[in-house]
Amino acid sequence: MSLYIIILYLIYIKNLFIYFIFIFIYLKIYLTSNIKRIKLLIIKQTQTNKGGKMTNYKEADKDNYLISGHVNHWAVYRWIEAGEVANLCNRLLIFSGLNEN
């Protein structure tokens, strides 16, 4: 009887291990895709000229990447320093597709 319980326990542990592997792979893919999207977001924010106008994508997309002020390579840090953390997080959620608003 105890051998039967041990075998069931080992099968249970093996299934848990497989679940953890699948969850880890899913999270890795999900996080790396979001990191790539955030990098793309930062790259798009740096594609401006001296006048601060967007050069490499449509004007309609401008509000998705600009919050305020002149955009440079340190745009994300400037938003955090300006106290717009919630706004930035919301925009990143919208950009990653987690928030549809």
Task: Describe the structure using short key phrases.
4 helices, 101 residues, disordered C terminus, mainly alpha
Quick overview of this protein structure:
Helices cover 67% and strands 0% of the residues.
Point out poorly predicted stretches.
Answer: 45-85, 96-101
User: What is the residue-mean pLDDT, rounded to a whole number?
Assistant: 54
Spatial gap, N to C terminus: 57 Å
Helix content: 55-70%
Q: How many β-strands, per DSSP?
A: 0
Shape: rod-shaped
Protein structure class: mainly alpha
Rg of Cα set:
22 Å
Largest beta-sheet details: none
Individual helix count: 4
How would you portray this structure in words?
By secondary structure, this protein is mostly helical. It has one domain (2-96). It is 67% helix and 0% strand. The protein has 4 helices and no strands. It has helices at residues 2-46, 62-65, 75-81, 85-96. The longest helix has 45 residues, at 2-46. The protein is rod-shaped, with a radius of gyration of 22 Å. The chain starts with a helix and ends in a 5-residue tail after the last helix.
Topology:
Layout lengths: L1 H45 L15 H4 L9 H7 L3 H12 L5
